[in-house]
Structures are given as structure tokens and as C-alpha cells.
Amino acid sequence: MGSIPATKRVLLFTNSEHGQANVCLATSYALLTLSDEDVEVHFASFPPIEKFVAITSQHAVRDDPRARPIIFHPIDGIDMVSAWTRPELASEQDGLKMIDVVKLIYAIRRMMLLLKITLPWTGSEFVQILFSVIDIVHKVQPDIIAVDPAFSPALTALRHINAKFIVLSPNTIKDFAMPHQPNGEPLWKYPWFIEFPLAVTPESIIPCGPIIRPALPLKEVDPELAEWLGRAPTVYVNLGTHMLLDEEMAGEMAAALRMALDALNKKEEYQVTEKGCKVWDVLGEEMMESGRVRIVEWFEAEPTAVLEGGRVVCAVHHGGANSFLETVSAGIPQVVLPVWMDTYDFARRAEILGIGRWGNQGTEFGVAFKGRELGGALVDVLVGGRASVYEKRARELAELCKRSGGGRVIAARRILDEIEEVNGFEKVL
């Protein structure tokens, strides 16, 4: 018999928004289900994510009865979304809808707002969170800490008390390696060019691949949706929780779906699921009655379960890191509609990797997308001359993502390895 491994205590700090928290949830699951390790996971965040921590914990215990339940620690203070949706910031966001200004001025205003959104707390709110983080560290006494790089109060607190920590991020290598590139490249090369090959990749950056949160099978969570998805190949449109469409944009989306459906009518019976838009007028009442189109506020099942649980043949999303990587890991071609910052990187990646299309590249300044351009991209991905190429390449990348157990297992093992190492710098996963 082998010796029983010593228990290792890992503490994770993250914002409660899924865009950042999902990699921590995914890694928590992996830490708990490593067959050769005994890990105690402590998860510190704001109350909105507690339900999903419990679901992840239950999933791990179900898959591995040896797994210890995750211990959740609520952080005192206001969460990021509540902070950035307060009235004063909301009014600034409304002001950005006025695009009849010089593009440079508009870009400066947008960047100033983005800075406020990424650091939306007042001074006193920031300090309250900082002290709460310090109290949790002292209470847990972890062997290692992993922290969300967008969680500024936690990073500040950990540096203040000289804690040993790892940065655990959904972001790409470029986002961390860019300042290290030579010849002033951060000032002129990015984001205009794709990041590979990078001239310099610091040793502190550890590529893991997509760190994807496991999901319960769709047929268990939503049997009715699983049955509906199984009827025919499906186009899945999910623009995330922050991209809301007004009536004009809803009409453009409907026009794009109409184009795709018309092109598919002679090929095979397809379905279209769409999140958050009123597209009834354009798509036609009869299509709703026939059941070919389904509009929902959100799914009970995780997006990963939807992507993997039915016959999804194309995913349309806004280019968020989670959306892109979940689709890649599921082996599904995609159409990307970028709207801000790194979402444009992911749209470009989809085309360079040969797994899909940038769906609004030709759209004029200030407009999210146009139905004709998006519809053309959908038709190209679904039934165009390169459709089989997109599909083949997507499957190949999905297989690559599964190597070594996938990104969440790689991240979990690197975190545990770090307990045994003594480094003069923080590791970035």
C-alpha cells in the first residue's frame, strides 16, 4: 500500500462574476478529484457565487467520494457588479451611446469608463474588502493561495501581508507577457496583430490551456431542453450577461438568423436558440409555433452542458474568454461578435485558427453588428465552402485541449507543485 498523502490546504480568492470565477471553480473541482492528492479547498468570494461553489463541491463529491466539500468564506463588502452598476456609473455608460463625436474622444471616454468598471469601489469599500481578505488568510492559514488578477483588493491585501500566492486567470498568454516584449511592441504591435509567436514568454507564465468548469449532463439538469436540442443540429447564440441588445440590434440578429435558416432549409432541419432578444417579428410567428426557434432569458444548465449535450453545430458569442474557450473545448465552430477589449483578440483567433468567423468585422463604428454581415458569416460556417474545414479544425483543437487531463487539471497540479517550491516571483496560470 502507498503512503497516504499529506493534506494540502488551498485558498482561492476571486470576484463573484463568472467571467473571472469560473476558472477558480474549475480548478477547485480538479484539486478535489486528483486521485493521488488529499486537498482541502477554501473558496473566498462574495455571496452571489456561493450557490455555484456548492454545486461544484457537490459535483466533485459525487464524482469522487474521497473529495472534501469546499469551504466557502464570504468576503465583506460590495461585489464588483453591484459596484459598477450603481447609478453614477450607469449614467456614464448611457453617455457612451452618443457616438457622434470624434473617434479618439470616444475611445478615451470608453477607456476611462472601463478603468472605473474594473476598479469600481470607493476608497472605503476597497479597504473594507482588503481587511476582510486579510482576516480570511489569517483564519485559514493556507499552504498556497490562488487569486483572480482582476480582484484588486485581494491582490493588494496579499502583497501587503507578504503572502505567497499564484495568479489564476482565464486570460491569454499575451495579456501577461505583453509588457515583456522587446522593441516597444506593446505600444504598436498589440492588439493589431495576433500574439503568436511571442518574442519573450516569461518563466512566471504557465500555459494551461482552457480551464473549463465541469458541468452536470444536460439531460439531468434540463431533460426537456436536452430532448429539444437532440431533434436536429442547432445554432446556439449566447452573448453573455453584459451585452444587451436594444430593439434595433434584436432586429439585426433576427435578420441574420433568418438568412441562416433560409440557407439551411434545403440542407437539413436546423434549430436556433437565442438568448435575450425579441426576434418574433422578423422570424415569424409560425416559426415560434413550429418549435424551430427557442428564446429564453437564461438556461438552468451550464453553457458547457448545452454545448456538449446536444447537436450544436455553431455557437455565436461576444468573444469573452470563457465563451471562446468553452466552445473550443467542445469542438464546435463559432462566430464571434466582439464588443470590447480582449473580445477582439478572440474574434481574430477564431479566424486565424480556422475554427470560425469574426461576425462584425465590417460593421461601422458604434454599431454592434449588422444582420447581413452576421448572416453571411453564419451561412459560411454552416454550409459554405469551408464549413467542413471549420468543423474538422474545431474537433482537432478540442482533442488538443483534453491532453494531460485538460487545463483545470494542469492548473491544479501546478498550484500544488508551488507549495513545494520557493520562488521570488508570483506564478501566473
Automatic annotation (TrEMBL):
Sorted UniProt keywords: Transferase
Transmembrane segments: none
Ranges in a coiled coil: none
CDD domains, per the entry: GT1_Gtf-like
InterPro entries assigned to the protein according to its UniProt record, in alphabetical order: Glycosyltransferase_28 (IPR050426), UDP_glucos_trans (IPR002213)
Molecular function, one GO term: UDP-glycosyltransferase activity
The protein, known as: Glycosyltransferase family 1 protein
Species of provenance: Cercophora newfieldiana
